[in-house]
Automatic annotation (TrEMBL):
Source lineage: Eukaryota, Metazoa, Chordata, Craniata, Vertebrata
Gene: Parp14_1
Domain (PARP14 second RRM): residue spans on this chain: 5-83
Protein name in UniProt: PAR14 polymerase
The organism's place on the tree of life at top rank: Eukaryota
InterPro entries membership: Nucleotide-bd_a/b_plait_sf, RRM_PARP14_2
């Protein structure tokens, strides 16, 4: 199977489920142990959690199990694979930085970049969101 599934699963609408509850649920569904076999990162601002599997499992199958799981449905959560990201957030940028500089920097092969389609600067928080052109196929 050359098309490797992402090792990360995104859970949306997690606000009804406490972090501990979510971890136990994922352990129950996957039969794995949190920290040893997978990690859970919470992004409360957008009611999302990302489970990343350290142990190699069939994440597509796991997403299917989650979608059919009674408790996940009761919490009205959804699960999906995290696709290889098209946007990244750059933080702690110097005040003087320009979108042009960021574009060139992130398009540099040396920094592992690729064609950039958009750069949004947030000077008040010294950060930027860099969006890459769709590059299906190369991970």
């Amino acid at each position: 199977n050359s098309a490797e599934a992402s090792p990360s699963v995104v859970f949306e609408n997690i606000e009804r489920c406490s972090p501990n509850c979510l971890q136990m649920l994922l352990e129950n569904i996957s039969g794995l142990t949190v920290d040893a076999d997978f990690t859970v990162e919470l992004i409360p601002e957008i009611n999302v959690a990302v489970a990343t599997f350290i142990k190699s499992i069939d994440t597509k199958e796991f997403v299917k199990k989650c979608s059919q799981h009674k408790r996940i449905r009761e919490f009205k959560m959804t699960a999906r694979l995290l696709e290889s990201t098209q946007t990244i957030k750059a933080e702690n940028l110097p005040d003087s930085i320009s979108t042009e500089y960021l574009t060139v920097y992130f398009e540099s092969a040396r920094s592992g970049g690729g064609p950039v389609s958009d750069v949004q600067l947030f000077p008040e928080e010294n950060s930027a969101i860099i969006t890459f052109c769709d590059h299906k196929g190369n991970t």
